[in-house]
Specification:
- The chain has 103 residues and is mainly beta.
- The chain is built from no helices and ten strands.
- The strands form three sheets. A four-stranded antiparallel β-sheet has the order 2-3-4-8, with no helix packed on it. A three-stranded antiparallel β-sheet has the order 1-10-9, with no helix packed on it.
- The radius of gyration is 13 Å and the shape is globular.
- It starts with a strand and ends with a strand.
């Protein structure tokens, strides 16, 4: 059964922003999309830019290194078809953001 790990507090992630966290041996990017928290892999496959530090435009996050664009909900790369980063399940419990760690 997958384990949930507390990675941040809701107050750490205002709407329209991203946050890079490390939990369960994984580098994860959290995003607040108008009140809905989502999580994908933090490392851009191009040159390992931190997606959590990228600019958020709607549901798209832009890698700060070279501008690759990713769907913050699915992890799919919009710049290079076929590229993607992992997607993680998120649950908000009271003020805590919990991410499900795959087995």
């Amino acid at each position: 059964m997958p384990t949930e790990v507390k990675v941040a507090r809701v107050a750490d992630l205002p709407p329209g922003t991203g946050l890079a966290v490390y939990a369960g041996g994984r580098d994860i990017a959290l995003f607040n999309l108008g009140g809905e928290v989502v999580a994908i892999g933090n490392e851009c496959p191009h040159q390992s830019g931190s997606l959590g530090d990228g600019q958020v435009e709607g549901e798209i996050v832009i890698c700060p290194l070279h501008g690759w664009e990713f769907d913050a909900r699915s992890g799919a790369c919009m710049t290079v078809p076929g590229e993607s980063v992992p997607r993680y399940r998120v649950r908000v419990q009271a003020e805590d953001i919990l991410v499900e760690m795959p087995d």
